[in-house]
Automatic annotation (TrEMBL):
SUPFAM superfamilies: Isocitrate/Isopropylmalate dehydrogenase-like. HAMAP family: LeuB_type1. Residues 45-394 form the Isopropylmalate dehydrogenase-like domain. It is an enzyme of class 1 (oxidoreductase). This is 3-isopropylmalate dehydrogenase. Binds 1 Mg(2+) or Mn(2+) ion per subunit. Catalyzes the oxidation of 3-carboxy-2-hydroxy-4-methylpentanoate (3-isopropylmalate) to 3-carboxy-4-methyl-2-oxopentanoate. The product decarboxylates to 4-methyl-2 oxopentanoate. Pfam families: Iso_dh. It comes from Lupinus albus (White lupine).
């Protein structure tokens, strides 16, 4: 098993106009602990977690794309499919079965579809699908979540923002993933002095949790454009005051990085007003959850964006940032692009298989260039297709249209 941070490409999707041979451009592999050697292993165990809603549909497409790109690059996979979320609740009574966590830990990488749905919304907290995902992240010790938001040239008109605002957006949100208010204690329900019921959570970070995600983000910014914006609420929250203190202290080690600070409410506004001012954003768990979803809509559809969750060792967790979309589940309407691009991130960041990753990235742009769209990104003059057909078109591009070494 290869440690994800040893393989981490610290630059997100960076798109450039193309003509006959579209290419998703990623830099050569650089990392916190640089590793550019050819991978010694060409056979991998991948844990697939289809989950709920549209998850099984998009995972099916991504699996086919992985198989084909891998076969063309001499890679073999052993897939093991496990339960998570609502599907696990229905089958086993818990959102994260021990068998699932054990398999994930022992694999080389984990690819997740989506979890959740109306069916389980009224469950107690420990029996909600989302609890299973939080437990999985904690179990894998993946503390750094990379969420790129890049506007594809072919989809710039799908953004709800004006052309001049959306065009050229290329930013990365680095979200702390295993601390903060989602995991802090004490938490629960109680009664106040007036006899009223209360619910409470704790936003808490230890110094080492802030330092490791901040250092990670500084390294990301160093491989991008040298700008890092730390988002907090230091004018109100003690946890954010401490966050800013630690980030400022660590900045002394990175004199080449232009560090700025922004309150989360202003950051939310600025993402809509002028998203191109941002390069790399680092923030806590809850703010990162919200801001990365907001940033995704700048691109035109949340269905286009992948993510990678990485730790110091063990397998990484790769997933689209969209939800389970129960309203369209089983109707062949899902957009598989984000999951396919998550598979590409899995290859590059989790396994160090750059050529296979490039095949997939190139194929996504080629498929877009040929005009194929699902409903969420459809516009006049393009070809409206379902999830399955879009997957077939991506496979055509993987196999025959775009060479792996196009960069």
């Amino acid at each position: 098993m290869v440690a994800p941070l040893q393989l981490l490409n610290l630059k997100p999707l960076n798109l450039r106009p193309f003509h006959s041979s579209p290419t998703l451009i990623f830099p050569k592999k650089t990392s916190i602990r640089c590793s550019s050697a050819t991978p010694s292993k060409r056979s991998y165990t991948i844990t697939l977690l289809p989950g709920d809603g549209i998850g099984p549909e998009v995972i099916s497409v991504a699996k086919d794309v992985l198989l084909l790109s891998g076969s063309l690059e001499g890679i073999k996979y052993e897939f093991q499919e496990k339960l998570l979320g609502g599907a696990a609740l229905d089958a086993t009574g818990v959102p994260l079965p021990e068998d699932t966590l054990s398999a994930a830990k022992q694999s080389d990488a984990v690819l997740l579809g989506a979890i959740g749905g109306y069916k389980w919304d009224k469950n107690e907290k420990q029996l909600k699908p989302e609890t299973g995902l939080l437990q999985l992240r904690a179990g894998l010790k993946v503390f750094a979540n990379l969420r790129p938001a890049t506007v594809f040239p072919q989809l710039v008109h799908a953004s709800t923002l004006k052309l001049e605002v959306a065009e050229g957006v290329d930013l990365m949100v680095v979200r702390e993933l295993t601390g903060g208010i989602y995991f802090g204690k004490p938490r629960g329900f109680g009664t106040n002095e007036n006899g009223e019921e209360t619910g409470y959570n704790t936003e808490i970070y230890a110094a080492h949790e802030i330092d490791r995600i901040a250092r990670f983000a500084f390294e990301v910014a160093r491989k991008r454009h040298g700008k890092l914006c730390s988002v907090d609420k230091a004018n109100v929250l003690e946890a954010s005051m401490f966050w800013r203190k630690r980030v400022l202290a660590l900045a002394q080690e990175y004199p080449d990085i232009e560090l700025s600070h922004m309150y989360v409410d202003n950051a939310a506004m600025q993402l809509i007003r002028n998203p191109k001012q941002f390069d790399t954003i680092v923030t806590n768990n809850i703010f990162g959850d919200i801001l990365s979803d907001e940033a995704s809509m700048i691109t035109g559809s949340i269905g286009m964006l992948p993510s990678a969750s990485l730790g110091d060792s063990g397998p990484g967790l790769f997933e689209p940032i969209h939800g389970s979309a129960p309203d369209i589940a089983g109707q062949d309407k899902a957009n598989p692009f984000a999951t396919v691009l998550s598979a590409a991130m899995l290859l590059r960041y989790g396994l160090g298989e750059d050529k296979a990753a490039k095949r997939i990235e190139n194929a996504v742009l080629d498929t877009l260039n040929r005009g194929f769209r699902t409903a969420d990104i459809y516009s006049s003059g393009t070809k409206l297709v379902g999830c399955k057909q879009l997957g077939e078109e991506i496979l055509k591009s993987v196999e025959s249209h775009v060479p792996a070494g196009a960069v």
